[in-house]
Amino acid sequence: MTPFDKLTYKLHRIFGLIGGLFILMLTITGSILLFDNAIDGWLNPSIVSVTPGTTRQPYDGLLKTLQARYPTGSIRNLVLYTDTKDRAVRADVRDGKKRIWAYVNPYTGAFLGDRDSEAAFVRKARQLHEHLLAPPVGDWILFLVGISLIGSVVTGTWYYRKSLLSVFAVGIRWNKPKRLLYGDLHKYLGVVALLFLLVISVSGTFFHWEQIERALGEGPREPRRQETTVAPIKTVDALLAESQKQVAGFVPEVISFPDEPGKPLVIRGNATDANPLLGKFTSATEFDGESGKLTRIFRASDTDAEYKMEHILEELHFGRFGGLATRLLYFVLAMAMAVVTLTGLLIWWIKR
Fold first, then answer.
1. φ, ψ at 67 (rounded to 5°)
2. Higher-confidence position of 215 and 285
3. How far apart are CA 159 and CA 93, in angstroms?
4. Which positions ≥6 away from 280 have C-beta within 8 Å?
5. Is there a single domain that holds both residue 342 and residue 301?
6. Domain with 196 in it
7. Cα–Cα distances in Å, from 64 out to 75, 111, 203, 266?
8. How far is CA 72 from CA 98, 202, 219, 229, 230, in A?
9. Residue-level pLDDT at 136
10. Quick one: average pLDDT of 290-312?
11. Which pLDDT does position 178 carry in this prediction?
């Protein structure tokens, strides 16, 4: 073993230990986010899940029901779940300091209930996964974790470069002493999940660097907004019809209402030519918040290379681009990554 190889192995252990402190949490929370809609439905069936009907009610009627329910609140978003037939329509409502998720049955128009959105399990899991529940400090920590994971992949690949593919010929020797068994599992699953771990760590590190840039004032930053009064929107069905007229095959998913005077109403969704790697929503229409006049049509396919690369990284990170099959594959690879981390820690413990 050359001195450089010894240094590489030492760095691999250091990177692995740093990343290992967080990788199990990231694996668990990441797996939750892969199936967040399903998990949220299981945890809150009485307000989130509905029995599919034959015809969906006009959204104008659902909007009136919500506005009557929250006369002092403002509806910020309406999440339609168009492609999920057994899912209630969800409204994001701000009522003073309260942040509420309110649910309406899209087939009957009945109000189903509400809850504190900040306390929702899937939201907490996302905040933990993305910010350690403590932005921006959590973003700095996870940025360093991402660097460590990238370093672990690079140093591990270099150190085992001569025997990288031979792990498949050796396999996993279950009847050997624990040290050898842990080593076999570590190398075998490490090779299997190598590309996955590299993609996840690179994309995650990139996202946290963006958050750090914003915290330092070097990136695009959302202005601090004060609570303002905006006239409630009275109709959305006509705007949805206009969106579907202007964008071929448009399937609306989210309606974002203006949160201050002069801001547009935005309907986000996907069209028939949608590239799933270009974002969760690849098309959008914008309307004047007062007159309802169409002001802009957005297509992700027409954006610049920077936008496309950022959203490709996001879709690769969260595994949203290939439906259920991709999410299941990501879950299996995430479990492999967790075993790689555990066996690495066990190998370090035995050799310490």
1. -65, -35
2. 285
3. 53
4. 314, 315, 320
5. no
6. 3-36+127-217+322-351
7. 11, 11, 41, 19
8. 11, 44, 35, 10, 11
9. 86
10. 94
11. 87
Report the number of distinct structural domains present in the chain.
2
Q: What is the pLDDT of residue 230?
A: 57
Asked if residue 288 lies in contact with residue 314, where contact means CB atoms within 8 angstroms, the answer is: no
Pair 295, 327 in one domain = no
What kind and span of H or E run contains 284?
A: strand 283-287
Q: Are strands 89-95 and 98-104 parallel, antiparallel or unpaired?
A: antiparallel
Among the listed residues 128, 158, 196, 126, the one whose alpha carbon sits nearest the alpha carbon of residue 8: 158
CA distance 293 to 223: 26
Is residue 228 pLDDT above 80, yes or no?
no
Residue recorded with tokens 């034959």: 54
Distance CA 298, CA 339 (A): 43
Per-residue confidence (pLDDT) for residue 198, from 0 to 100: 93
Q: Cα(181)–Cα(184) distance, rounded to whole angstroms?
A: 5
Say yes or no: 167 and 305 in one domain: no
Structure-model confidence comparison of residues 350 and 326, the more confident one: 326
Higher-pLDDT residue of 218 and 306 is: 306
In a domain, 143, yes or no: yes
Angular region, 292: left φ>0, alpha ψ -120 to 50, beta rest = left
